[in-house]
Write a structure and sequence with these properties.
With 208 residues, the protein is α/β, with parallel strands linked by helices. The protein is built from ten helices and six strands, in the order βαααααβαβααβαββα. The chain has a six-stranded parallel beta sheet with strand order 3-2-1-4-5-6, sandwiched between helices. It is globular and about 50 Å long.
């Protein structure tokens, strides 16, 4: 049975900071929020789900209003990314090479349609066996990692991500965490660290 690699998305496989900053600011202006964010503001919340980000950006806003604004954000940025994509941290041939040796999955704290936008814009549907997102399940990343493993019969896996939240999720799922140090966050005690995604194969020799 092929062993599994489970990936985070933002900051691990692609960088959507620039388009999301632009699109979210357009939605915020449309809704007269008075809020303008920078790319650094967005980097600082990468890895959190939209509900958590909403509470950070609009702590005093009514929950229903906040949810509506971020629903608009999600619809707008998913549509944009599906059509235009975003810069990748890898070459397509590298991911195809990994897919020949391992089962590949994605688990992300993102809205429905976001992982699909990644796969469709990059034409990578054939590389990934399954995926899950908080927007579909309402569960934590750790719970979603466990769900993906269980429904695909995976026992040996690692999770590749760029934040402490990813590290915590991997620990919850009981699998090693590889820190993508080129991404948006830090890690406390990862099983391994990579500074480029193409370093992954060498690291995996000691983990899987």
């Amino acid at each position: 049975m092929l062993k599994a690699l489970i990936f985070d998305l933002d900051g691990t496989l692609w960088d959507t900071v620039a388009p999301l900053t632009l699109i979210w600011n357009q939605v915020f202006e449309k809704n007269n929020t008075g809020k303008v964010i920078s790319e650094d503001d967005l980097r600082n919340v990468m890895g959190k789900n939209l509900q958590e980000i909403g509470r950070i950006y609009f702590p005093n806003m009514a929950e229903e209003h906040r949810a509506d604004i971020f629903k608009q954000c999600a619809e707008a940025h998913c549509a944009y990314l599906k059509e235009n994509g975003a810069p990748l941290f890898f070459e397509k041939s590298f991911m195809e090479k990994l897919a020949a040796k391992y089962q590949l999955f994605i688990v992300s704290n993102c809205p429905c349609g976001y992982i699909e936008a990644f796969l469709e814009s990059q034409k990578l549907q054939h590389c990934f066996k399954d995926y899950e997102m908080s927007g579909r399940t309402g569960k934590t990343k750790g719970e979603n990692i466990k769900s993906v493993m269980e429904r695909n019969g995976v026992r040996d896996a690692v999770y590749v991500g760029d934040t402490v939240g990813d590290e915590t999720a991997a620990a919850f799922a009981g699998i090693p965490f590889i820190h993508a140090a080129y991404g948006f966050g830090i890690a406390n005690n990862p099983a391994a660290v990579i500074n480029r995604l193409d370093e992954l194969e060498k690291v995996l020799e000691n983990l899987l």
